[in-house]
Amino acid sequence: MNDDRETDTASESSYQLSRHKKSPSSLTNLSSSSGMTSLSSVSGSVMSVYSGDFGNLEIKGNIQFAIEYVELLKELHVFVAQCKDLAAADVKKQRSDPYVKAYLLPDRGKMGKKKTLVVKKTLNPVYNEILRYKIEKQILKTQKLNLSVWHRDTFKRNSFLGEVELDLETWDWDNKQNKQLRWYPLKRKTAPVALEVENRGEMKLALQYVPEPVPGKKLPTTGEVHIWVKECLDLPLLRGSHLNSFVKCTILPDTSRKSRQKTRAVGKTTNPVFNHTMVYDGFRPEDLTEACVELTVWDHYKLTNQFLGGLRIGFGTGKSYGTEVDWMDSTSEEVALWEKMVNSPNTWIEATLPLRMLLIAKISK
């Protein structure tokens, strides 16, 4: 089994959402460039695209490692020695299959993740592996090193066992003692990343709000939202080294087919370039506070599409047209992009946002 294959998968057919009884009068003429579409408010029974055990395991134990910057090679070396007293993913047999994963933050996509091998059936794994990052020292001093321990599950998604974060800006590289192996207690994930299972990569995109697509018209016209999907970075590989990804867009609360637009699929790369612009019209100013742009990235393989990660760009108020909805759950970065777009009409606002797990809404037939 290829160890790089992430197993938090979900097929497109596995999500469902019930139709809300009342249809709001608002946003009924929201349409995509592919034609008019009517809108029903959406709420209630959202089903998770998978179930898992993230966050249920108690975080305990320690990790022993050392870091060193090798000037000659211009490399950061992270020597991962061992862990002890980890939480048991298999409670009955009191054991886990742990591995250690490293990222340089804040831009986890840029340098990529590095992983140790999995050590099976133990709570005290010994690795003695060096994880290397080719990086200039000046840049390294702006980073944080994140080391996390995971239990590898062949059939379900992997379970988080704890993490350590080192701020490399304040690290004393000249101190000899800092090159020695040290024990660090594992900590629980720092919010708001608590629901991020594994890194799902990022999307580079730009949004533009055009309040008057046809200037100078006497009659009031509705506005347009333009979504320019540029590229994705560091997408997770779910099946070995193969990836054939595409991006789908829906403007919630409208989940009808006409609200859905998608890019073409781009194969054989974890950094696909799409350069695809989608236009949605029918936006009145007041609709901007109620709607949410849902962008999801999928891996297309044979007859199935597997969910890789997504974004929800809106005000994240938890409500839409007076109804409480689960999908108005934008992160602070997603909200910041939407706010900038609303406040700077007729201007492309660009961002690179981390893809995340979504509870995906779909109206049942």
TrEMBL record:
What residue spans carry the region label Disordered? 1-35
Q: Which GO terms describe its molecular function?
A: neurexin family protein binding
Q: Where in or outside the cell is it found?
A: Cell membrane
**Pfam families for the chain:** C2
Membrane-spanning residues: none
Q: Which SUPFAM superfamilies match?
A: C2 domain (Calcium/lipid-binding domain, CaLB)
Name of the molecule in the record: Synaptotagmin-like protein 2
From what organism does this protein derive? Cebus imitator
The organism's taxonomy opens as: Eukaryota, Metazoa, Chordata, Craniata, Vertebrata
